[in-house]
Design brief:
Strand order of the largest sheet: 3-2-1-5-8
Radius of gyration: 29 Å
CATH class of the largest domain: Mainly Beta
Number of strands: 12
Number of domains: 2
CATH architecture of the largest domain: Sandwich
Bound molecules: dinuclear copper ion
Distance between the termini: 75 Å
Helix content: 40-55%
Number of helices: 9
Order of helices and strands: HHHHEEEEEEEEEEHHEEHHH
């Protein structure tokens, strides 16, 4: 059979039905987007995992639903007016009016009330979140192009790119930068905070459940900004204490006469390993502390998995992995790379 069956079929579905179907598809898509928004994707601030993020998400949803009601009412009134006062014939003209004091007062007062309804809880939450309990655990975070230095001043601990915290305890982060402006952000635990050279900004948060929460620099800071990632690892308090004890342990030097021992001084010009003396004292160029590098989940600030392959790939040519990397390509031989990988991975 020939002809145009599609057109015939379309004619069968009447216009109002088609309009209804289109609305249904749109509504289903919107519901799908909203449902996806609240899933626990690693960087989803609408899937909060701690009290600070919960308060911030609560504020978001309050404003969202107020805006949604306003949108539906305003668009509804608009569509109704378009239909009700549509032109019915060529000489049709609606009644002409000028000004309406009552309406004007109403549409001034209603938005003012709405703004107050948004402002009161917002200002309250801002002051509430700025408070940190006295004696809270402090963590100093120093931003570098393109990694994070993590210091625990009260525990005499230094690490990099992975922040360990105990669950249920509010932690105060003191943020500063050694070079340009960065931004410290762990979306599931708290909103972001700028990391500015020459000043210290603070951010408080805590995690309710043990787990690994992804963080990311959120201020464009140069070539490898996108690879300036970090992780917050929340432990039960007893496990956190165990982590602290293992981090306080010094590292063993490479075996005397080994290839690793010959190559390591090059690394120690910039990196520190607690327990292993550098060739010229403490490093002048800051680079991530390597004392317990073997126990980290990732290397190169989240760019590579902490595996033999990952570490070898990094040592072979750092700037090829991470554009602009301050660590140059040292043209290490495969044997030197193998020796270093074996030694570094032993630093648990
Ligand atoms: Cu640091 Cu972007």
């Amino acid at each position: 059979m020939t002809g145009e069956p599609c057109d015939t079929n379309r004619a069968v579905i009447r216009r109002p039905t088609r309009r209804f179907l289109r609305m249904a598809v749109f509504t289903a898509a919107l519901a799908g987007v909203l449902a996806a928004c609240t899933r626990d994707y690693p960087y989803n601030s609408l899937a909060p995992a701690g009290p600070v993020a919960e308060k911030q998400a609560g504020l978001f949803w309050l404003v969202f639903w107020i805006a949604a009601v306003v949108f539906v009412l305003v668009e509804g009134a608009l569509v109704y007016a378009l239909w009700r006062f549509r032109r019915r014939s060529t000489d049709d003209r609606p009644k002409q009016v000028h000004g309406n004091t009552r309406l004007e007062i109403a549409w001034t007062i209603i938005p003012a009330l709405l703004l107050a309804g948004v402002a009161v809880p917002t200002v309250g939450t801002i002051f509430d979140l700025a408070e940190s309990p006295p004696g809270a655990m402090r963590v100093e975070v120093v931003g570098h192009q393109w990694w994070w230095e993590i210091r625990y001043p009260d525990l005499q601990l230094v690490t990099a790119n992975e922040v360990h915290i105990p669950t249920g305890e509010q932690v105060v982060f003191e943020l500063t930068s050694k070079d340009v402006i960065h931004s410290f952000s762990v979306p599931r635990l708290a909103g972001k905070q700028d990391v500015v050279p020459g000043r210290t900004n603070t951010l408080n948060f805590s995690a309710t459940e043990p787990g690994t929460y992804r963080g990311q620099c959120q201020e464009y800071c140069g070539l490898s900004h996108a690879y300036m990632r970090f992780r917050v690892i929340a432990h039960e308090p007893a496990d956190f204490e165990a982590w602290v004890q293992s981090e306080l342990a010094q590292a063993a030097a490479p075996e005397a006469g080994s290839l690793a021992e010959q190559v390591l001084p090059t690394c120690l010009a910039c990196h520190s390993i607690n327990g292993v003396e550098g060739p010229t004292g403490p490093p002048q160029t800051p680079a991530p502390d390597l004392t317990h590098i073997g126990s980290r989940q990732t290397i190169a600030a989240g760019k590579l998995p902490n595996t033999e392959d990952g570490m070898a790939t990094w040592l072979r040519d750092p700037p090829a992995v991470k554009a602009g990397s301050k660590m140059p390509d040292y043209n290490l031989t495969e044997d030197e790379i193998d020796a270093l990988v074996e030694y570094l991975r032993s630093l648990k």
